[in-house]
Design goal:
The complex is a heterodimer of chains A (328) and B (469).
Chain A (H helix, E strand, L loop, with lengths): L1 H28 L6 H11 L3 H18 L1 H10 L1 H20 L8 H28 L3 E2 L2 E2 L9 H25 L2 H32 L2 H8 L5 H19 L5 H20 L2 E3 L3 E2 H4 L3 H29 L11
Antiparallel strand pairs in A: 1-2, 3-4
Helix pairs in contact in A: 1-3, 1-6, 1-7, 1-11, 1-13, 3-4, 5-6, 6-7, 7-8, 7-11, 10-11
Chain B lengths: L2 H42 L2 H35 L1 H6 L1 H28 L6 H30 L4 E4 L2 E4 L2 H5 L2 H32 L3 H36 L1 H8 L10 E8 L4 E8 L2 H7 L21 H29 L7 H9 L2 H18 L2 E3 L3 E2 H4 L6 H40 L15 H12 L1
Antiparallel strand pairs in B: 1-2, 3-4, 5-6
Classes of the chains: A mainly alpha (328), B mainly alpha (469).
Chain lengths: 328, 469
């Protein structure tokens, strides 16, 4: 039962990273769009699905609360300011979808700024959170003692930038897949730079981890089989490079998505069996059986597949390229 | 534990949830009304239903968007500010709220996309189905929220183990009389909110003399529904009062402004509770009525606040005052709905401008009633967060500092004020434009890839200009 919920939690987080990743990425690239028409098109590629994408964050949050209440309580309170700023970012970008087209043209910039700024703030804070987890939070006897700014470090800030770059790469690949002509071409031109920046970021993180002797590195050396994930990631990076060089869009988004999956898998398995490295294990954190079973027999077994089905229906209804015409 | 951080956290939770509840309260009723309109359009083929649907869908879109973004905050705020509560009650509250997300949020989110952007991409029957699914989603969400909150009001079906509330009877947690009086009370409140907003809009158009067919449908459907539902709501309100009387005697005494045991008890109609003297100033009360209301008896003894130690009493003034505001709003709404329906049946409503003004100006009443009702429930539960088991002061994140809490509160205040002002303004502008002028200018159903062409600002402005001339 515990294993089931760890797996479902991991799947939900992964789905969130991929789905909201591309739409937050589109949000950040939105600031670089060349024209009003291009901005409209970019928004149209995510407008029907963003709400569902963001819901996966809530899904992951409530699974965490129901199945691993100790981790929910510890992480959210330890990351007080990053979580609040992320939420405010998500609010500002979320309302922009609805408000932008209702604003008078001379005030539309307000919602453009809120869309870009909100997307950036949310992505950055998510990266900071991951970075701080990798670096390790301070615990004494299972209780967090790092204080209200325990997450703040150069490394965590670096990871914030890294995730922004990663999401932007995902967003650019999404635009290439969903758009025609102008918007697609611009996104295509952005991809090589973003891909190189992500690569550079990964190298810096790796070097930093070596120099700082982060505890996570030891787990790598202890468990060589973990290198399967980076290997898959490297393979996907090679596919990405070849797609860029040959101007072939077919596998672009998939390649970037696989890189994300590989990175996520690497991280998750190097934490195992800890949920908060290296203080709280999955077993420590698991809710009582009565809670896990109640969740399993309803939402886990029946509702989760249904949920995936609605999401699939949503993406099917809105499949295909978005029109480039934006005249009225 | 830091007393300032505690106070700021309480203000922040109260502020963010008060802001949030306004939108679900509006959209739950509106989603049901959209489903009815779409079904009636499919059945009768009358254009007025289609025009109303397209019009209210846009207002729904703005309100729903604000409800979604302010709702995401709620799911995380338990953990950020109330880490002790969320750890201890996680095994019960976590699963309940996870059911909300699983059964309601994803349903709403996916089908809302179809509703707004998919008119031309799906067959009409699937479109109607999507509308119904959004409506079902909003209702399910309310159900789980009420179940969760009811457990905090009257904790049942649990055992305390190693500092956790461990569920031992889910049937009791979900199927108990507290949930099943409070959930209908909230749902009816949401339907009444929708009904009054729709009727008020209709009255506004009649006063302005436009949108003839649409205003007729809005006035009739809104008023008739409200006239039928308010009496039912009063019954459920009474049932909710019964649970408070039985399980939360201190809250009940605070609502009644009853400081000392009385037999038979009188009912304080108005007054100003004064904790210092443990009595009410300027009070007007009726003898025996207190016992009748509390226990349906002429002789029952009713409990006073002084039976409880001062540290176990809720603040008295807020529950006492907000309860009276809620009931007052309910009674005014009843009078408006009944008299308005009567005039409408007699076909005299359109000529009665005073009554039309009353209906038009009544739209804030259901919102005020819902907010004050929640203040009664939540403030009256103090000093407990889980009634009788965990104090609010012990539930707050232990290492939260006052500056951090202040920063977040100020940020929330600024951002919410900002988006609330614009959101309300956009809704107001849509309402002012009205269905006819939107429908004349806008093609039916937006072009599939231009989502917001439903209500382009240029379009609205050009409509304004032409209407102004």
């Amino acid at each position: 039962m515990v294993l089931f919920w760890v797996a479902l939690l991991a799947i939900s987080i992964l789905i969130y990273l991929l789905l909201d990743g591309f739409d937050l990425g589109v949000g950040m690239l939105f600031g670089l769009a060349g024209s009003e028409a291009a901005r409209d098109t970019m928004l149209d590629t995510v407008a029907p699905v963003w709400d569902g994408n963001e819901t996966w964050l809530v899904v992951a949050g409530v699974i965490l609360w129901g199945a691993f209440p100790l981790v929910y309580a510890t992480l959210l309170s330890a990351f007080y300011l990053p979580v609040i700023i992320m939420l405010l970012g998500l609010i500002l970008r979320g309302v922009a979808f609805e408000f932008r087209h209702r604003a008078a043209p001379q005030f539309r910039w307000i919602w453009d700024v809120s869309f870009v700024g909100g997307s950036f703030a949310a992505s950055f804070m998510q990266g900071v959170t991951v970075g701080a987890l990798v670096q390790g939070l301070k615990f004494t006897d299972g209780a967090y003692v790092g204080g209200i700014l325990g997450w703040l470090s150069p490394f965590s800030l670096l990871c914030g930038i890294g995730l922004c770059l990663g999401y932007a790469l995902l967003g650019a690949s999404w635009l290439v897949q969903k758009c025609r002509s102008g918007v697609r071409d611009r996104a295509r031109r952005q991809i090589p730079g973003l891909a190189l920046a992500v690569l550079a970021f990964l190298i810096i993180v790796f070097a930093h981890a070596l120099i700082e002797n982060l505890p996570i590195m030891h787990r790598w050396l202890d468990r060589p089989y973990l290198f399967v994930f980076p290997a898959v990631g490297a393979l996907a990076a090679a596919v990405l490079a070849s797609s860029i060089l040959r101007h072939n869009d077919r596998w672009l988004f998939a390649a970037v998505a696989v890189i994300f999956v590989a990175a996520f898998g690497t991280l998750a398995l190097s934490f195992w069996p800890y949920m908060i490295p290296f203080a709280i294990t999955i077993e420590d954190a698991a809710a009582p059986h009565a809670s896990l079973a109640f969740m399993f027999w309803g939402e886990g077994l029946f509702v989760f597949p249904l949920m995936v089905l609605y999401v699939a229906i949503g993406y099917r209804v809105f499949r295909g390229k978005v029109g480039t015409t934006s005249g009225h | 534990m830091n007393a300032t951080a505690l106070l700021l956290s309480r203000i922040q939770f109260g502020f963010t949830i008060s802001f949030h509840i306004i939108f679900p309260a509006f959209t739950i009723g509106l989603a049901a009304w959209l489903t009815v309109l779409e079904a009636m359009h499919m059945r009768t083929g009358r254009a007025v239903y289609q025009a109303l649907f397209e019009f209210w869908l846009q207002i729904f879109g703005v309100a729903f968007g604000m409800g979604v973004v302010s709702g995401v905050v709620m799911g995380f705020q338990f953990g950020t500010n109330w880490s002790v509560l969320s750890k201890m009650s996680g095994p019960i509250q976590g699963p309940l709220l996870s059911y909300e997300t699983f059964t309601a949020f994803m349903l709403e989110a996916s089908f809302f996309g179809v509703l707004v952007f998919g008119r031309k991409r799906v067959p009409p029957s699937f479109y109607l189905f999507s509308t119904a699914m959004v409506s079902l989603g909003t209702t399910l969400s309310a159900f789980w929220i009420m179940t969760n909150n009811s457990w905090m009001q009257v904790p049942v079906g649990y055992v305390l183990q190693n500092g956790y509330f461990v569920p031992d009877n889910w049937t009791k947690i979900i199927f108990n009389s507290v949930v099943w009086s409070r959930f209908p009370h909230m749902l009816l409140a949401a339907y009444l909110t929708g009904a009054f907003c729709v009727a008020a809009t209709g009255a506004w158009y009649v006063l302005r003399g436009d949108n003839y067919a649409e205003s007729r449908v809005m006035l009739r459907m809104g008023l008739f529904l409200a006239a039928l539902l308010i009496p039912v709501q009063l019954v459920f309100g009474h049932l909710v009062g019964d649970y408070v009387h039985d399980y939360q005697p201190a809250k009940f005494a605070a609502i009644e402004g009853r400081w000392h045991d009385e037999q038979p008890a009188s009912e304080v109609l108005i007054g100003l509770p004064d904790p210092a003297t443990e009595s009410n100033r300027y009070e007007i009360k009726l003898p025996i009525l207190g016992s009748i209301i509390a226990s349906s008896s002429l002789t029952s003894k009713e409990v006073g606040l002084t039976d409880f130690a001062p540290q176990d009493r809720p603040p008295v003034l807020i529950p006492f005052v907000t309860f009276r505001i809620m009931v007052g709003c309910g009674l005014i709404m009843l009078a408006i709905a009944w008299f308005g329906s009567y005039l409408s049946i007699k076909r005299r409503l359109r000529r009665n401008r005073a009554m039309l003004w009353a209906i038009f100006l009544s739209f804030p009443l259901p919102f005020i009633a819902i907010l004050t009702g929640w203040y009664v429930a939540e403030v009256g539960r103090q000093p407990w967060v889980v009634y009788g088991l965990l104090r609010t002061a012990d539930a707050v994140t232990p290492f939260l500092t006052a500056p951090a809490a202040l920063t977040s509160l100020v940020l929330f205040g600024a951002v919410y004020l900002f988006i609330f002002s614009f959101g309300t303004f956009y809704i107001y502008r849509l309402l002012r434009t009205g269905p006819t002028r939107l429908a004349v200018e806008a093609p039916h159903g937006a072009s599939p890839n231009r989502p917001m062409s439903l209500a382009d600002p240029e379009l609205i402005q050009s409509v304004y200009r032409s209407a102004g001339e």
